[in-house]
Amino acid sequence: MLLEFKTKNYKSFVNEMCFSMTPAPKQKGLDYSVLKTKVSKKNYKGLCCGVIYGPNAAGKTNLIGAIDTFKNILLRGNIKNSDSLPSMNAAASILELIPNCNSQAAPTEFQIRFIDNGLLIDYSITVDLGLFMDSKYSRRILEEKLLINEKQIFLRNKFLEVNLPAFIKPNIKKMTQEMQEIAQKSLAATELFLTNGFKMIFAQELVNNIIAWIKQKLIIIYQADYIKISRHFTDSKSDIVEKTLTNAAKLFGITANALGYSTAKEDETLYSLVNGKMIPAEIFESYGTIRFISKFPLIIYVLSNGGTLIVDEFDASIHPMAIMNIINIFHNDYINKKNAQLIFNTQNPIFLDASLLRRDEIKFVDRDDKTGFSKHYALSDFKTANGVRKGEAYMNNYFVNRYGAIKDIDFSGLFEEIMGGSNE
Q1: Distance separating alpha carbons of residues 423 and 305, to the nearest angstrom
Q2: Nearest-5° angle of CA 341, CA 235, CA 89?
Q3: φ, ψ dihedrals at 205, nearest 5°
Q4: Would the N or C end of the chain have less CB density within 10 A of its end CB?
Q5: 205: which residues sit within 8 A by CB, 6+ positions away?
Q6: To the nearest whole number, what is the mean pLDDT of the chain?
Q7: How many CA atoms lie within 13 A of 119 on its CB side?
Q8: In the chain, which residues have pLDDT < 70?
Q9: In this predicted model, what pLDDT tens digit does every residue of 185-203 receive, in sequence order?
């Protein structure tokens, strides 16, 4: 369960940005939708959903891109460029695209806080990547820190400090002075200590579990247009997923055809069964159908495994009534038994509804016209004096610019100029 993600000096987010999936204090309403879990003897809460609003080019996709970039750095285990492009997010592979192009050289920071397998994980890195597009800069990790259950496990800066509290000792090797010295000597400027020295010398099983959550349960779709229909998320329960997908598509009203994969495991193609013939769904079904059936297995996957699904423009080409129902499913504690979460950005104001989302689940990204810097905040950050009370008409307030993150757009002057001088 994701609790928090922070970044600083990532593209338009020059100042620290904190994306919180922890319920805001004193927020009431839809309390049944709040996720709950216990770590040691302490109770923690999380939000089921986060829906992000803001004008075009405000930085909504940059927010998702920052999480995606951090994930890919962790999976690589270093801050070097990657030859492969794991997603449409170029900055995840070409790290000189990360620093803000208009700011002075400043470190880039990432931090993630999540709960998995009864442990509260808090991991952060601060890296010096140089200036924007400086591909020859000698990068280095300035600081790296891991906390588990709010206890510091290691701190890496100019020096290295490793602490192994008793509650994680079943997952680690017995620490000796020699191991400490080896770990200190193993540090490399561009290599993460977590996935290299700490994993190899102290705690392979522990690190494997952390990376497994990042890889398998933190699902990020940077650009939803490029989701590929795949069996990747259906292999374990293929028949169940295919039947569910077919039934869901029929309920959605987008296709009357059965959907499924061939018996050949190497065939990744999803087919529509039309008059007894198998036709690739991508060439037979509509664009909206393709968008829906590409995403639905992901929803099944995160609900079944307790994952966090983050999608850029999740609702595009899908009717808002279907999206509302999916949001309600994540809020339904009889269905969402494993603390799954759904996060997406959107331009559709219909979700600005107090009966659908809590105020702390409604997020905004705005951009300063002078500096070009993005800022992120939640509806719950506003005082009640600003007209953010339970039952308020959030959509109406948004369109009269009470919350920011909206721009007045008027193209008439531009077209008057284009059409000027013409009497026809």
Answers
A1: 64
A2: 55
A3: -65, -45
A4: C
A5: 171, 172
A6: 85
A7: 17
A8: 86-87, 170-175, 224-257, 260-268, 384-391, 421-424
A9: 888 999 999 999 999 888 8
**Which class for 110: exposed (0-12), middle (13-18), buried (19 or more C-beta within 10 A)?**
buried
pLDDT in tens, 39-93: 988 999 999 999 999 999 999 999 999 999 999 999 999 999 998 776 689 999 9
Q: Indicate the residue type of 26.
A: K
Residue 44 burial by CB count (10 A; 0-12/13-18/19+): exposed, middle or buried? middle
Q: Are 351 and 57 in contact (CB under 8 A)?
A: no
Predicted local distance difference test score (pLDDT) of residue 165: 85
Q: Is 210 exposed, middle or buried (0-12, 13-18, 19+ CB in 10 A)?
A: buried
Q: For the chain, how far is it from start to end, CA to CA, in angstroms?
A: 61
CA gap 69, 89 in Å, rounded: 8
Q: Extract the runs of DSSP E, i.e. beta strands, from 98-165.
A: 108-116, 119-128, 140-148, 151-156, 160-162
Identify the DSSP state of 401.
Answer: T
CA distance 61 to 369: 18
